[in-house]
Amino acid sequence: MKKVLSMVLAMLLLLGMASSTVRADDFDYATDNKEATGTTTKLHKYLVVDKDTVSPAITFTYTITAGAVADAETGKLPVYAGIGTPTVANVSFDAGAATTAGGTGKPITDDTKIYAEADITINFSSIKFPKPGVYRYTLTEANSNTENVGGVKYDVDAPDGTEQTRIRTIDVYVQDTNGTLSVLGYVAYEGQVTAAPDQTYTPNGAAADGYANGDPEGSGIEDETKSNKYINQILTNTMTVQKVIAGNQGDKESKWTIRVDFTGLPANVTPKYAKVVENGQDIASPTYANYTSGTALTYGHQDKYKFIGIPEGASYTVTETNANSEGYVTTYANATYTFTSDGTIEDKDDAVVTNTRTGVIPTGVAMGIGGAVVLLGLAAVYFFTRRKASDIEE
Q1: Sign of the Cα pseudo-torsion (172, 175, 181, 185, in order)
Q2: Is residue 11 part of a domain?
Q3: What percent of the chain has pLDDT over 90?
Q4: 228 shares a domain with 314
Q5: 54: nearest Cα among 116, 109, 10
Q6: Domain final residue pick, 180, 205, 234
Q7: Half-sphere exposure of residue 341, counting CA atoms within 13 Å on the CB side?
């Protein structure tokens, strides 16, 4: 009897091992409807412009494709190319959307900037992940310079110091919990990642706030930086126009009108202007308003207007509407210019319109007449004296 029982136990053990082996190597999650259904994740999106300028209406679009496979190594998680067709919603900003001031403790720390914020939503809900591991995708932001807004600077604060990459690697973490798969979380990296994360790494519950994990804590992927945001800046330039009245006949109280004609302005961009200097004195808090190209503004002596929000590639020409009138000669300095299109922000502070009027003040006329009168008088005295002497002699 003991012999029979021992044989039965041995057979049960063998069957159990066989069963375990099949489950470990050949378990089909799809057959048991144990696949992981994808969810949604988000990235932060910031649109930044210079303070006092108007952010343009603009739409950013994205593509998402399968990322690079990383072979399983000891101590590393397997990385598979992303499957299925996730979707990414466009992100649109209305004109003037950027109103939040940058500063310490804010997503945009530069206090000379204002910004608008939105979410980039990536939807994986149509995808069923068939086995545990990491599924990798490549997210690319399209070139939005075609939106007719001028220069767009991408990845302004890219952690590695580069710009214009527009790429994020999105890793989807799928885990097995008691034979059922689920999505544990999402991790986003700046740029294209090809390495595998550590087997002990988890996304730290990043899905709790709905955003992909952008925490800089290491995942074991060397030389890669997590980033769950895109920061885009609209590149704008500035210029000023100053008025000077010169010459000994120049009336420092006179007023003149000057226009600035811009060319190459995108349809969605409006420069702004403000008087920043009046009669040679700086204005502490200038008020900016939209400027329509070609509008004439009134200038006095040593007045200066500043124009901001001028996109790259735009040109300007400064013209005094009543130039060379009232005896004045009008001259220009740096009255025309074209801003570069190479991503350089320029502050042009050198356009000057000078009106000069001079004249010869007749300070010696009275002296000349007086001298002539004296000479005539002397001549008359001499004449009559000589005549009288002549009469006496006769």
Answers
A1: negative
A2: no
A3: 50
A4: no
A5: 116
A6: 234
A7: 9
Identity (one letter) of the amino acid at 52?
Answer: D
224 and 256 fall within a common domain = no
Range of the domain at 134: 26-234
- Most confidently predicted of 30-34, 226-230, 291-295: 291-295
The pLDDT of residue 90: 94
Is the Cβ–Cβ distance between 67 and 134 less than 8 Å? Answer: no
Q: Give the integer Cα–Cα distance in Å for 221 and 199.
A: 11
Query: Does residue 379 carry a pLDDT above 80?
Result: no
Percent residues over pLDDT 70 in the chain: 77
* Tokens 């034979």 sit on residue: 179
Give me the mean pLDDT over the 242-246 stretch. Answer: 97
CATH number where 35 lies: 2.60.40.3050
CA–CA dist 281, 392 (Å, integer): 80
Digit-coded pLDDT (tens) for 65-75 = 999 898 777 88
d(CA 328, CA 259): 18
Q: Which residues contact 126 (CB under 8 A, 6 or more apart)?
A: 38, 84, 85, 86, 87
The reply to whether 128 and 144 lie within a common domain is yes
Tokens found for residue 253: 């109280």
CA angle 348/144/138 to nearest 5° reads 130
Q: Please tell me whether residue 343 adopts helix, strand or coil conformation.
A: coil
Eight-class DSSP state of 107: S
Task: Answer whether residue 376 is part of any domain.
Answer: no
- Between CA 28 and CA 35, with CA 30 as vertex, the angle to 5 degrees is 110
Q: Collect all residues with Cβ–Cβ distance below 8 Å to 337 and sequence separation of at least 6.
A: 239, 315, 316, 348, 351
User: What confidence tens digit (pLDDT) does each residue in 100-116 have?
Assistant: 999 999 999 999 999 99
Contact 259, 294 (CB under 8 A): yes
Could you read off the pLDDT of 5-48 as tens digits, one per residue? 444 434 433 333 233 323 334 577 877 788 899 999 999 999 99
Q: Are 207 and 241 in a shared domain?
A: no
Q: Is residue 362 part of a domain?
A: no
φ/ψ of 43, rounded to 5, equals -125, 155
Last residue of a domain, one of 172, 199, 234: 234
Beta carbons within 8 Å of 212's beta carbon, 6+ residues apart: 41, 42, 43, 122, 170, 185, 186, 187, 188, 206, 228
259's enclosing H/E stretch is: strand 256-263
CATH of the domain at 352: 2.60.40.1140
Both structure tokens of 334: 């740096």
